[in-house]
Design goal:
This protein is mainly beta and about 500 residues long. It has two domains: about 450 residues, 6 Propeller (Neuraminidase), CATH 2.120.10.30; about 40 residues, no CATH class. The protein is built from three helices and 31 strands.
């Protein structure tokens, strides 16, 4: 974990509060879970996986940060196929990379795979421009001059490989700094494609477009650049950009979906946006049976937010960033007397977060999750009925924090209710670098570990199976070769079975 510090709004906090994927994954330790639960590694050997999608036919698609999509035939497959390699187009630096992945709702009958990634070129240029570094930019990666864009595309599947060419739906999201890049993709219950993206602004200074050499490379009006791009729907001085927003799209064309709040606007991007005022909505999920979008918004100085977009077609929801962080005004932007913030303070203000947790405080008292470095990094709802977990988890919201290395369950206070902010428990302690969580086949929770694995959380109400740990030494050599096998590192999670393990070798 990095201990480099930075100043934000008069406070000092760890750099991990601002950058999600730029730092190495937390060191792997044995996960701690509630009684009866067990963590299992399903896939390993991946290179910085960021997202996974389960196909109805049993296949599993995994996106890697560098721009490669791999597909496993099933959960037992150990040799994935490369579905598509977009690494030449993908800017894989700091938080930038291939971050979003979604399958068409009726896949594979509709054979489309959707992908969201940082495109390796400034506006008006073609990839590869920076070639996965920023060495030629003034000030390097974090100097405010290594500018890229975000790209949303759809890829046609033919079996386990992409066929034809990449079909670009949107290329936008000007990103001046290497954090707060593009975010996530999900289909709503309405069949529309929802997309999130970060503000692309500085995480080390108050940024309203004055930074860089030359300043303001994204071409925003004075006092409306940087983090203020998250308020761009409210700005009339330029064409709307998509930073810090949630989009609701027609998945065929990438145009605004019918029924969007500003569908009659002459600006194509304004039509697409259903929520704004977000800093880094890296992950979001859709509450089952509804069109509610629940977002994790990575904070800056003090707060991590979980936002609830209750009705995407009722009006553009403003979650307040950068004028607000959490439920309070953001001091550094408030003190700058920026017109877009001042008008928000004197008007309707923000839509407050559904839940926030403070960077210096535990989510659950007594937990072993760490504080100081914070990055909410995954959300998924447990089904309201039919899942294999205990009934208390029905309708729960699971949320992860990559920097703290934990996954929590926010459970409803009563059956059928919303997740209760006063009913939270640690579900996976010492989780291995969680950057995405998802409900998989059979209603079990899976999470993606940036360190190279995909893991599943299983529940065994009676007796949990032992965990085997086999070591062979040596593993290579000239024939004849004598190999010693040792299974003494195996364990059984059930205390009553401790010391009762037996071993049998079958060659």
């Amino acid at each position: 974990m990095s201990t480099r510090a930075r100043v934000a709004g008069g406070t000092v906090s760890l750099l991990l509060s601002a950058t999600l994927l730029a730092m190495p994954a937390p060191m792997a330790q044995a996960a701690t879970l509630p009684s009866g639960f067990q963590e299992q590694i399903v896939f390993s050997g991946l290179t910085q996986p960021t997202n996974l999608e389960f196909a109805p036919d049993g296949r599993v698609f995994v996106a890697e940060k560098g721009g490669v999509i791999r597909v496993f035939d099933n959960l037992a497959d150990t040799t994935p196929t490369v579905f598509a390699d977009l690494s030449a187009n993908t800017h894989n630096v700091w938080d930038r990379g291939m971050l979003g992945l979604a399958l068409a709702p009726n896949f594979p009958a509709s054979p489309w795979v959707y992908v969201l990634y940082a495109y390796d070129a400034p506006p008006g240029q073609n990839a590869p421009y920076w070639n996965d570094n920023c060495n030629t930019a003034v000030g390097g990666a974090n100097g405010g001059n290594c500018v890229v864009q975000g790209r949303l595309s759809k890829l046609q599947a033919n079996g386990n490989v992409m066929t034809g060419t990449e079909q670009v739906l949107i290329q936008d999201w000007c990103q001046q700094f290497p954090s707060h890049s593009v975010g996530d993709l999900r289909f709503g219950g309405d069949g529309m494609l929802y997309v999130s993206g970060g503000d692309g602004a500085s995480f080390s200074a108050t940024d309203y477009g004055q930074l860089g050499s030359p300043a303001n490379p994204c071409g925003d009006p004075v006092n409306e650049g940087g983090a203020l791009r998250s308020q761009d729907v409210r700005s009339t001085g330029d064409a709307t950009q998509l930073n810090g927003a949630v989009l609701r799209l027609d998945p065929v064309t990438g145009a605004a979906a019918a029924g969007n709040p500003n569908i009659g606007s002459p600006d194509l991007n304004t039509r697409r946006i259903v929520a704004q005022g977000l800093r880094n909505p890296f992950r979001f999920t859709v509450r089952p049976g509804t069109n509610e979008v629940w977002l994790g918004d990575v904070g800056w100085a003090t707060w991590e937010d979980i936002e609830r977009l209750t009705n995407p077609t009722a009006g553009v929801t403003n979650f307040g960033w950068p004028c607000y962080e959490g439920a309070a005004r953001m001091p550094s932007y408030d003190n700058a007397n920026l017109p877009l913030c001042e008008s928000l303070y004197s008007g309707a203000g923000q839509t407050a977060p559904y839940y926030t947790y403070n960077h210096s405080a535990a989510v659950v008292p007594g937990e072993n999750c760490g504080t100081g470095g914070d990055s909410v990094s995954g959300l998924a709802f447990y089904p309201t009925s039919g899942g294999p977990y205990p009934a208390a988890y029905a309708g729960a919201l699971f949320f992860a924090d990559y920097s703290r290395g934990c996954i929590w369950a926010m459970k409803p206070a009563a059956a059928g209710g919303l997740p209760s902010t006063s009913n939270i428990e640690v579900f996976v302690g010492q989780a291995a670098g969680p950057v995405d969580v998802a409900m998989g086949p059979g209603g079990e929770l899976y999470y993606v570990d940036l360190g190279g694995t995909v893991r599943r959380i299983r529940y065994f109400p009676a007796n949990q199976p032992p965990t085997s740990n086999i070591v062979a030494n040596p593993t290579t050599g000239q024939i004849p070769l004598t190999v010693n096998f040792n299974g003494s590192g195996s364990s059984d999670p059930d205390p009553a079975d401790a010391g009762r393990l037996t071993y049998q070798w079958d060659f």
